[in-house]
Structures are given as C-alpha cells and as structure tokens.
Amino acid sequence: MRNPRAFLRPLAVGAPAPVAEVPFRPSRMIHFFDPSNEKMAAKVPDIAKKVDIILGNLEDAVKTEKKEAARLGLVEIAKATDFGDTQLWTRVNSLDSPWVLDDLVTLVTEIGHKLDVIMVPKVEGAQDIHYVDRLLAQLEARAGLERPILVHAILETAEGVANVEEIAGASPRMQGISLGPADLAASRRMKTTRVGGGHPGYLVRQDPTGDDLTQGRTTYQQDLWHYTIARMVDACAANDILPFYGPFGDIKDVVACEDQFRNAFLLGCVGAWSLHPVQIDIAKRVFSPDPADVAHAKRVVEAMGDGSGAVMIDGKMEDDASCKQCLVMLDLARALAERDPELAAAYDL
C-alpha cells in the first residue's frame, strides 16, 4: 500500500510536483480535431478562440495509416499556435495499441509545455492510470517541464464502469472522466448502434385505462446513460475531479444533442465533447448557467447571510442546503464570466 503522504511526491527524479487541487477552468466543450486532416488543421487557430478546450485526436477517428501523420501534425500545430486561455488537450491511442508509447514520448518531449491534459481511452482500472502516471513523470523530467500534465480517463468499458471510483482516485494527475457511450455500449453488449443519446426502444409505457391494452397508452423514451453518468459524477465529485459527457454522434439532430447535454449538465457534468462546430454553441449555451438562475442564486445567498437558518423567497423555503446549491451556481458563473464578456454582462457579477 502506498504511503498517503507520498501521494503528492513526484514519481521520477526531476519531475514537477503533482498538483494538490485540480484547477477549474471553463470546460464547457472539448472540441475534437484530426491533426492529420489539413483542412481541419488550418482552422485550429480560429476555432481555438471559440472553445474552452481544443483536443488533437490521435485515436479511433484517425486511420491506421495516418497515425504518425496525426501525431506529427499535432506537434506542428501546437508549436505554431498561440492558444491563449484555451486549453490544449490530446487523446492518445489506447494503452493496448502499438502507437501509444510513441504518442506519449513524442508529445511530452516536443510540446509538453503546451499540453494541459492527456486523455486516455478505454481505462479499465487504476493500473492503467498508474502506468501513465509514472511514464509521464519520467518524460516530464527528461523534458524539463515545470508543471505536470494532467490525465483524463474515458469510461468506455464495463470493467471501467465497475472500477470508476478507483480510477477517479488513482493519481493526483486525474483531471476528470468522460463517458464514452459507443465503446461502452459494445462492451456491455447493448443493442444500440447510436453514439450517445436515447433510444426509442428504451421506454416506459403508461398503464392501461380500460380493458383494451392497445389504446391510449402513451410511451416515454428513457435515457440509456442516466445510471452511468450519475455514477461517474459521484466518483468524480468524491475525488474532486471533473465529469464530462462524451460525444453525441448525430450531428444533424441538434435538438436531441442539446437535450442530452442538458441532462448531463443537470446531473453535474461540467462539459461535453463537440465533434462538429455546430455543437460548440450548443455546449456553450447548455453548460453556462441561465442568467435567471444566477440572479436567483444571488438573491438566496444575499438573503441567507452566513448560510444558517432559513428564509422564504417567492414562496419557497431556502435553507443551508439550497444556499450551497446556489453557491455552486455562482462559482461556475463567476469562472465563466472571467472568460466570456457576454456572460459577464448577463450575470452582472
């Protein structure tokens, strides 16, 4: 068993000290791009100004013959681009692939000073995080980095879900966890070919009102991912890291995308993946608190004073618990207002 006092010591001589607290920066969308695609690469400087996180993807969406081109393309883009306040992430290849070692060695050595987070796919247990943790420390020491690169896990296997709590607490490098619904569906043998979102076959039906069991029975589509998202959020909250919804694959269905993102937001996720520019504005809108909710939260906090006791506002009781809920809303609003002038004006903070 590891000495808990050693948890925040570097895992390699000369590596930067691990962070004691995950820095919270606006993270409403993680926008993916393929560094091997020249058209996408050319748009990165402009898109980076519109998103909270931009991620160079090296994994599944990149064809085998383009793996090396994607890796080298990300290095070139990172060196040539001023990302400003936008975070730069990458998703490396899975730990059982022949490419991941070169991904980590090349990226940390060449652009480690610019990388904020490395996303690791198909994490199944703490052992996967421990491997990456130690290797990153060695590479950081070699590259002379002054700050550690954080790690983000994707939850996309049944084993990963079963071990999500130990994954969340495996290392001080852990920044957060994303839901990977497509791979998780395959791992669970779920009978859906959709990438995220609900399914019309997953429903509940209104009870019959008479003898005819076929008439007048409304159906309600259910959320396939509610349990998994809630469990992931709890694991992240218990370990002070950040939960994210993953991809919504139907680019044209912006209504359902917004619904799924909002479900995740209400459950506690801080952001979602965007696979197409149209999803950027959806994520920005959904994962930013509504100005009316922020205004209400301000009223509650101001009325509660030190947070003790209870008050009545608009006919509703507000007490210590509701004050804590409002403080969560206000903390997020302030963080977003610092980055977004429009939200700063809307929130009046």
Gross morphology:
globular
What's the story with the biggest beta sheet?
A: 8 strands, parallel, barrel
**SSE string:** EHEHEHEHEHHEHEEHEHEHHEEHH
The span between the termini is 46 Å
Mean pLDDT: 94
Q: Which strand order spans the largest sheet, edge to edge or round the barrel? A: 1-2-3-4-5-6-9-10
Q: What amount of the residues lies in strands?
A: 15-25%
Structural class computed from helices and strand pairing: alpha/beta
Number of beta strands: 12
Number of continuous helical runs: 13
What radius of gyration results from the CA coordinates? 22 Å
Roughly how much helix do the residues carry, as a percent range? Answer: 40-55%
Low-confidence stretches: none
